[in-house]
Write a structure and sequence with these properties.
Chain lengths: ~160, ~325
């Protein structure tokens, strides 16, 4: 008996009507789409993007070639050579990050005793030829110089939670 | 010479108008489909090419036309190329008998309904030949599924049309529409409600659209009969499928919703019969195609067969008798 009732009920197409009404309701809802290049989703100050080497306000580079970042890097993406500079201080002669190896874990930034190597919130970058994936010291310093203001700001925002 | 002049100056213009109209409609139908489905998914849909994405169809067409047509190894080249042409030609040929408004019809023939049924069924040959010529197991499976499905639903569709034929007493599409003159209550959708639903659902199945798109079934057989097609050949299949969708919607509007007649009665401008009523009614069913696609999951194959043979065919047979009895006793506002 219930079988026959169910069969007759199915002929009224009520279930399909319910489903159609549901999709119709969503048709008029506000859309979730973020129109990317014009609109962007908010980014956390802890966002880990492209790397940068920072300088002190007097122009001296922060890095002291302690090689902690090189040691902690789980992907072995950092290569550092160091030497004694004319003034007798220890500085890097080579500081390279292979961005293809890098997994953006942020350990280098955590390990740095002088806040030299940082990960900025830049995530829109690309390489145009082979080998360009290895960031040299000059490039990293240039990124740091260009975005120092932004980096300082995000570090400031995050500082109270650390 | 007179015949030639008649053919060229009268019919050629009509044919061009219909073909161009259908092609343009198909182009914007793809845009409309993507927008409707995106909106139901709470997305935006295409909005990059041109203002609000309105040039997207042309970008798609240009992309398809400039792509290479790849012939599979050991494929039968002649059949491989003729298949999309058959699909497209039958889809376009059916438009010859569609009356857009009173007297606005290319070929006002008496057997219009049978002609339409023949043309829409012939389209399956394109699918079968494509599946066979592709020399691919997915294509062959898709073609077999499509053939079985279309044969099954053709019967229910044919019976639904018999109901219309009984109701109108004519096979001429213009006559069928004229039988529904006189406002909303005179439309055949009321006495033929079950047949109307079955006709439209069978139409969805005939055109291989969701939820009856097992012939394509991305998750099971990649893309079914047109896996091996690319470039312009694929574009032809696409065009044929969408032209078929439009014709099914147009026929539903003609046979059940009174074609070019207004739902209102009286003397005001809104009660006048016009081509816009026909186009509007057709668009409702086109929208329903996408609405169904956004709402329902794909039927399992045996469920499709069950629905076609065990549900639709018995209901249509019973309702043909009901319609016949109603007609004999001059029931309602339709046959008195």
């Amino acid at each position: 008996m219930t079988k026959i009732v169910r069969y007759l009920k199915s002929l009224t197409l009520n279930e399909i009507r319910k489903g159609l009404m549901l999709t119709q309701k969503y048709f008029f809802k506000r859309k979730f789409t973020v129109r990317y290049p014009e609109e962007k989703t908010p980014k956390s100050p802890r966002f880990r993007g492209l790397h940068a080497l920072r300088r002190y306000p007097n122009g001296e580079e922060r890095c002291i070639a302690c090689k902690l970042c090189e040691a902690v890097c789980p992907a072995a993406a950092i290569t550092i050579d160091s030497d004694v500079r004319e003034d007798g201080s220890r500085r890097t002669t080579k500081y390279e990050i292979d961005l293809f190896k890098c997994i953006y874990c942020g350990f280098c930034e955590e390990s740095c005793p002088v806040d030299s190597i940082v990960e900025t919130d830049i995530h829109e970058y690309h390489f145009e030829s082979m080998g360009k994936n290895v960031m040299t010291k000059e490039q990293l310093l240039a990124v740091g110089d260009m975005y120092e203001e932004q980096i300082a700001k995000t570090k400031q925002e995050d500082a109270k939670y650390r | 010479m007179e015949l030639l002049e008649f053919l060229i100056f009268d019919n050629l213009i009509y044919i061009l108008a219909i073909v161009l109209g259908v092609i343009l409609t198909v182009a914007y139908l793809t845009y409309f489909e993507r927008k409707v489905i995106a909106f139901m998914h709470v997305r935006m849909g295409p909005n990059r090419v041109g203002p609000r994405g309105l040039l997207q169809p042309f970008a798609d067409v240009l992309k398809l036309l400039t792509k290479e047509i790849i012939f599979p190894k050991n494929a039968n080249k002649f059949l491989f190329l003729i298949a999309p042409i058959i699909t497209l030609a039958t889809a376009f040929a059916a438009w010859a008998v569609v009356p857009f408004a009173d007297g606005m019809v290319l070929a006002d023939i008496n057997a219009g309904l049978v002609y339409v049924l023949a043309m829409t069924s012939l389209g399956v040959y394109g699918v079968i030949i494509a599946g066979w010529a592709s020399n691919s197991k997915y294509a062959l499976l898709g073609a077999l599924r499509s053939a079985a499905q279309i044969v099954s639903y053709e019967i229910a569709m044919g019976f639904a049309l018999v109901g219309v034929l009984v109701a109108a007493g004519s096979l001429n599409l213009s006559e069928i529409v004229r039988g529904q003159e006189g406002g909303l209550v005179h439309w055949y959708i009321w006495p033929l409600l079950p047949l109307f639903l079955i006709y439209y659902i069978s139409g969805v199945a005939e055109t291989n659209r969701a939820p009856f798109d097992v012939a394509e079934g991305e998750s099971e057989i990649v893309a079914g009969f047109h896996v091996e097609y690319s470039g312009a050949a694929f574009a032809l299949f696409f065009l044929g499928e969408y032209a078929n969708m439009i014709i099914i919607s147009a026929l539903t509007a003609l046979m059940f919703l009174g074609g070019w007649y207004s739902p209102f009665t009286g003397d005001s401008w809104i009660a006048q019969p016009s081509i816009f009523w026909f186009l509007g009614k057709t668009s409702i069913f086109l929208y329903a195609y996408f609405w169904l696609r956004a709402s329902l999951p794909r039927y399992r194959y045996d469920q499709i067969m069950r629905l076609g043979w065990k549900v639709f065919i018995p209901i249509t047979i019973v309702w043909i008798f009901v319609v016949a009895v109603m007609k004999v006793y001059h029931v309602g506002p339709w046959w008195n």
